[in-house]
Write a structure and sequence with these properties.
The protein is an alpha+beta fold and 131 residues long. It is 21% helix and 11% strand. The protein has one domain.
Amino acid sequence: MLFGTQFPILATAKTSRRELYELVWMRVRSQLKHTCYDRQNLWWNSTEEIPENAVGTATKAKKPLTPFVLKHVDFVGQSCSICHWSKRCHGCPIEPRAEDHLELRPLLLRNTYIACEWDMNFLEENSDPAG
């Protein structure tokens, strides 16, 4: 289900998937508490894969922060813009690789939209009501 505010992200011919995460983070971080701004601990800056059970907050073992995952969706936001409808995919995750702009550009030009799927625990714990 879609909620929140839609906002444009300027992607150029050289924008990578990792840069998409950075652009979204820069846009939404003003709505979060300053205590969660540890950029080095964000999961897309880590060399690890997307955590299976993303909790959203860092533990003492410095588990990467997983505030959100970006996904390819259709204009309604209910199904994937990459997969065929019969697969019932709700959006393929965008893996944050740094040097993939040649692969990303054709996907962005084929009428795909990007959804930001928030970890609700992270959002509840770190949302700044004054932001």
